[in-house]
Design brief:
about 190 residues; alpha+beta; Trna Endonuclease, Chain: A, domain 1; 7-stranded mixed sheet; two-stranded antiparallel sheet; globular
Length: about 190
């Protein structure tokens, strides 16, 4: 099956751009990658009202994650996932306002502006489908936490006449330096 993939690349002037590629996934992918893509195609979305961009294969970061124990490993996977998600959102036209913004309610991975919309974005990264899709880790409790975080953010900063949106960016690591990314817009907002 031929599928169009976008890959984030660095241009000569140091900026990033989206390079369009076509890949024959049935022949160029490992069985594990084919299974991951098939599972993603059949998966239910985290919210039926969410608008979802087509899955994309993006640069995930430097190859190799240090083996300084499982906690460090998970933190490094998360950090690399958040970096890849931020690059992806910028290429999609969002302006990153804050990363890892903390308040008494918790931490928002990414807070961005999409036109006249303030976007609170939860990033989930997984290295396998063993525990399910990354977006499935965003529970009802996490959703309520993000709503409280939005309240604190709006109280602290003077944003007016802007809608508020809650997105999820999930990344499934398919190689040391690449991940499949899906962006769920308005993943758990009120419709």
């Amino acid at each position: 099956m031929d599928e169009r993939l976008d890959h984030i690349v660095e241009t000569e002037d140091g900026n990033e751009a989206v390079e369009e590629q076509t890949a024959d996934l049935a022949h160029d992918s490992s069985p594990a990658q084919q299974e991951a893509c098939a599972s993603l195609e059949d998966a239910e979305e985290p919210c039926s009202s969410a608008e979802t961009d087509q899955p994309r294969c993006v640069e995930y970061g430097d190859a190799g994650v240090s083996s300084q124990g499982p906690t460090y490993h998970n933190q490094e996977i998360g950090r690399r996932g958040e970096n890849a998600a931020a690059r992806y959102l910028v290429i999609k036209g969002l302006e990153i306002l804050e990363r890892n913004w903390t308040c008494p309610a918790g931490e928002a991975d990414i807070i961005a502006r999409d036109g006249c919309c303030l976007v609170f974005c939860e990033v989930k990264t997984r290295t396998s489908l063993e525990k399910g899709l990354p977006c499935e880790a965003v529970t009802c409790e996490k959703r309520h936490k993000y709503e409280r975080i939005a309240g604190y953010f709006l109280k602290e900063y003077d944003y007016t006449d802007m809608c508020v949106r809650f997105d999820i960016v999930d990344l499934l690591v398919v190689a040391d330096d690449r991940a499949l990314v899906r962006h769920f817009k308005n993943a758990y907002g009120v419709v």
